[in-house]
Structure formats: structure tokens, C-alpha cells
Design goal:
It is a single chain. With 238 residues, this protein is mainly alpha-helical. It contains eight helices and two strands, in the order E-E-H-H-H-H-H-H-H-H. A two-stranded antiparallel sheet has the order 1-2. A hairpin with a 2-residue loop joins strand 1 and strand 2. Helix 2 packs antiparallel against helix 3 and helix 3 packs parallel to helix 6. The relative contact order is 0.15.
Length: 238
Amino acid sequence: MPRPELRVRGDADVEVGVTGPGSAATAATLTATVGLAVVSWAVTVRQMDGAMDMGVATRLGSFGSFAALWVPMMAAMMLPGAAPAVLRRTHTQDGRGLAAVPLFVGSYLAVWAVVGVAVYAVYRPHGPFAAGIVVIAAGVYEFTPLKRRFRRRCREDVSSGFAYGLSCVGSCIGLMLVLTALGVMNLAWMSLMAVLVLAERLLPAKAAFEVPPALAIVGLGLLILAAPSSVPGLMPSM
């Protein structure tokens, strides 16, 4: 009886057989990855419910409380889009299979944890003008060859979770800047950025899918500069 085949050609192109060891490994990997993301969303929503979201004036509090929010937030936002890469790592020919997945996922999330340390170090409560400038800069970055290079590598590089994480940080740094500028503890902005991250991983790397979000980010930055009170959640409620 022929064994099932699994072919992974890209983040948005995964074909899996119905039965056999290959499909079992795929099902286990997807269940674990998506399950961890779901749990992370639940933890993040619960923690944000008690967080003091004041838009651009938000304070991060102690490093411990920030880290306790940042790590599950990154897992919630990044793991769904990383699932195809985790699948590719599961089915590499080095003989490790599922045993390699925890290290891959753990090192991937560790990279984002380090990004959180950097965010905590440089972040300060700011005003709408600074937020608008950062958002515009993030939108411009989306048009650059560097962004496209990182996005391509993020969709292809599965040598290690660390290398994959570095590529994905380069690909998503613009969106993370937008989130940080608008309100790092705002669940609505976080959800929108998570959708954009997932779309980047699953949609083809074509201008039709890349240009509209970049233009929308630049437009949002201009709107913040022109009429900050019109942007929901940007200004602290009085």
C-alpha cells in the first residue's frame, strides 16, 4: 500500500495525505501549534482586560508584568502564521521529525521575547505626532526591498527556529512598530496586526496583496497627524 505523501512548497501551499505516519505527524503538529496559539490568545485577552490601555500614553509598568503579557501576545499573533514552517520542520529529512518541533517553536518565540526586551527598553509614553511619524515610517518600510527580502526568507527558511524568527522579525517589524506606536496593550490593534501577519504568511508575495496594506498604514499615519481624535483608541479617554 503506497505511503501518503506530504509536499510543502511554501507557507500557503501544503498538501497532506489522509492516512499514515506523515499525516499523523502533520495532525499532531498542527494541533499542538494551533492549540498553543489559542491558549495564548485566551491568556492575552484575560491579561489585557485588566491592563491600563491609554493609547499613546500607555505605560508598560514593571518589566515582569510586561513580559508576562508580551510573551503570550507574541505566541498568539505569530504562531498561526508560523504553522506551515513548523510543518516543514516536522518533515525534514534529518530524522528528528516531531522531536524537533518543541525546540523550533521555543527558539522562534525566544526571538520574539528578545524583541520584547528591546521594546521595553526604548518605549516611552508619547503623543499623537510621534505615533503618526512612526506609523508612516512603518508603512514606508513595507515598500522596501529589505522588507520583501525578509518576507521571502520568512516563508522559506526552516533551518532553525532562531533563524526563522530573525527573518520573521525583519518581515514583521513594521507591523510591530505600528502596534507599539498606537497602543501595545490595545486588543483591537493587536488583533488587526495579527490578521495582517497571518495574511503575509499565507498569501502569495505579490503587489496586489502587499501594496494595499502598506498604503493603508501610511494613510493611517497621515490621519493620526491630521486628526488624532478620529482614530479609535489612540488618545486616552477622559
